[in-house]
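Hey, resending since the last one bounced:
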Amino acid sequence: MASETSFTVQLSELERHVQRLEDVEAIKRLKAKYARFCDQSYNPEELGRLFTEDAVWDGATFGVFHGQDQIRQFFASASHQIPWAFHLMIGPEIEVDGSGAHATGLWYLFQPCTMTSHDNPNEKEPVLQMAKYEDTYRKVDGEWKFAHVRIRYEAITNLFQGWVTHPFRS
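The structure tokens again:
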């Protein structure tokens, strides 16, 4: 017969395991909200709420923005450059640290979108974006938020040129 101490240790371990699984699912929902709000013309208010006050959003060629205010300002104008997007976030690898207050995530992005032409902002082009998101998360008042979002593009290519000869739009 197991001792009461052994049972308590097993129960405590099980509680930690369940909490970790709940945290991973909450982070997946956070990323899904991010994708949905981006696909809603980069809704700056809703997107801003997903970030910590001191967050960093590093969009590589799109710029680096510090804090919720700068991140909101960026997203408020993002739909001028990308008037339509469909963010497909796939293959998450999420690790929650031992404290249960911090986590990291790696996601793949496959995104068909419409972008304005470099040569003529009135002209729209069909584009495929493929990237990796390297995220860090922080639990704030029991809710997971983005602390740092870093995007590393593998290709941003015009649909009809393709990524074989033109991995980045000219």
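Strands lie at 51-58, 64-66, 84-85, 88-96, 102-116, 124-140, 143-158.

Sorry for the duplicate.
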